[in-house]
Recover the amino acids of this structure.
């Protein structure tokens, strides 16, 4: 009898197993390599011979791989003796190990791309090939990126907890990358953020999880059958995943109740207000503007100010939106697209058409460019347009 | 990370500083040039920034459909075509600054007399997939 290996279950154990090897004295880079090898063996062996205790199996095999790799026979015997004398870590220790691993993989000494790759491998348990496919680079390139990242953090010691903000930014990047290869990075980011929420009670972890759930809920409605981008106002709200929305709102409310507001909670609150409207017209734009004010206060981000201008345009009319826009730097990404939208709302179709065409030329992604080009074409095709 | 295309032109780019056509280099100078390009690609693989690199033959053919059931029409090559792509490299880097830095290095590949060519390379960003979170 062969049964397919439950890869999600398998990958969920990875951080714990790396933690156990670390407690036994393996350094991070070697432990991570050994666990990857054990994963490959698990996928090969388990269909015919499923283990009774998957975690113990992985620990045993990964430890053997680690010892094989270190080779030195004498130190091997010493280590084996030590292992027999040492109890397995309890739940609290496993939790600490897991949290430490998140901090290590998002260490500030790493570039964002390296932190993302290392997180997906050491915590996500993805293979280098899967990560390379997801980011559309050759496997050899991704392998180098990961091994450089491991070298960079090899000397890091954890006497103090790291900054949860760096971890959250890495997970946010993974989520925002979406799904281009055979690995669904958005779903993977949600899984890793859930796992983090189980070991950290920081309200911003909940804020990010809520933000992801609320956006993931809209995914089926974000693209039309032809793959074209469907803007929020035109989405079929019946296609939104109400189960994910309900969960996102619950997670967010519990976080907000703790009264330690952060940028991800504020962003999730905005997403929740959109999710709450049965039609686009019922959107509570006044409250959304208030949340953007919070977001601007928390981050000072020019992107938040730009999005705020759109919300002001909806809440107080196009003129108010254009006035808010006039205070911003026109070189911001998507500034021209926002200006086009507000001018159309203001009744100036000719200016809007010209700005949509300008925005399309500057768009950084293909589907957005097509969408903006269609907007310009729609306005140009109008009688007298 | 963002992907960029580094385009090398046979012609169509502004003149290089060390502007001697390759057929007038010595064989050693050509070897040194090729080696430089290979080393550059190998180094970028090592830094986790290499995606692809290809060279193109100078001569190509223009093709267009001639309607259903008919073979495509072909034409060319056209000697008067101003722009001619020689090859490309695709890199995946953390910033636009890094892309410019690498293109600068590639432009300094050795040419005649072993001196850097300082040729113009065209740097074009890839259009990406849209981000999940937009508002």
């Amino acid at each position: 009898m062969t049964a397919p290996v439950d890869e999600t279950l398998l990958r969920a154990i990875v951080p714990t197993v790396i933690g156990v090897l670390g407690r036994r004295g393996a350094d991070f880079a070697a432990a991570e390599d050994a666990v990857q090898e054990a994963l490959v063996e698990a996928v090969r062996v388990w269909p015919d011979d499923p283990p009774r205790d998957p975690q113990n199996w992985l620990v045993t095999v990964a430890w053997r791989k680690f010892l094989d790799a270190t080779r030195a026979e004498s130190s091997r015997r010493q280590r084996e003796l030590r292992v027999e004398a040492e109890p397995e870590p309890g739940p609290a220790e496993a939790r600490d190990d897991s949290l430490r691993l998140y901090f290590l993989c998002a260490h500030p000494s790493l570039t964002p791309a390296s932190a993302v790759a290392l997180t997906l491998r050491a915590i996500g348990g993805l293979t280098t090939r899967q990560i390379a496919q997801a980011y559309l680079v050759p496997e050899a390139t991704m392998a180098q990126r990961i091994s450089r990242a491991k070298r960079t953090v090899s000397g890091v010691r954890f006497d103090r907890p790291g900054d949860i903000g760096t971890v959250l930014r890495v997970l946010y990047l993974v989520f925002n990358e979406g799904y281009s290869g055979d690995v669904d990075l958005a779903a993977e980011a949600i899984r890793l953020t859930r796992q983090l929420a189980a070991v950290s009670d920081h309200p911003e972890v909940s804020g990010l999880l809520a933000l992801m759930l609320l956006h993931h809920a809209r995914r089926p409605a974000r693209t039309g059958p032809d793959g074209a981008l469907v803007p929020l106002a035109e989405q079929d709200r019946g296609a939104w995943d109400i189960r994910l929305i309900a969960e996102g709102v619950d997670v967010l409310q519990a976080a907000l109740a703790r009264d330690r507001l952060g940028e991800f909670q504020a962003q999730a609150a905005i997403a929740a207000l959109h999710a709450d409207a049965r039609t686009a017209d019922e959107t509570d734009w006044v409250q959304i503007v208030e949340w953007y004010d919070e977001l601007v206060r928390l981050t000072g981000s020019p992107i938040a100010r730009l999005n705020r201008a759109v919300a002001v345009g909806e809440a107080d009319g196009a003129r108010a939106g254009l006035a808010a826009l006039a205070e911003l730097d026109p070189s911001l990404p998507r500034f021209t697209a926002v200006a086009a939208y507000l001018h159309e709302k203001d009744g100036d179709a000719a200016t809007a058409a010209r700005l949509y065409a300008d925005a399309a030329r500057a768009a950084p992604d293909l589907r957005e460019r097509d969408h903006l080009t269609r907007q310009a074409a729609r306005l140009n095709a109008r009688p007298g347009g | 990370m963002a992907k960029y295309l580094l385009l090398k032109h046979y012609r169509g780019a502004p003149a290089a500083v060390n502007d001697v056509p390759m057929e007038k280099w010595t064989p050693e100078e050509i070897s040194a040039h090729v080696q430089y390009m290979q080393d550059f690609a190998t180094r970028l693989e090592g830094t986790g920034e290499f995606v692809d690199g290809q060279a193109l033959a100078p001569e190509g053919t223009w093709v267009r459909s001639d309607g259903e059931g008919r073979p495509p029409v072909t034409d060319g090559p056209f000697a008067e075509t101003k722009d001619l792509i020689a090859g490309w490299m695709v890199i995946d880097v953390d910033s636009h600054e890094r892309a410019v830095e690498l293109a600068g290095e590639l432009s300094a590949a050795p040419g005649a007399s072993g001196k850097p060519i300082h040729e113009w390379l065209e740097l074009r960003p890839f259009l990406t997939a849209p981000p999940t979170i937009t508002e």
Notes: The mean pLDDT of chain B is 89. Helices of chain B lie at 27-46, 96-107.
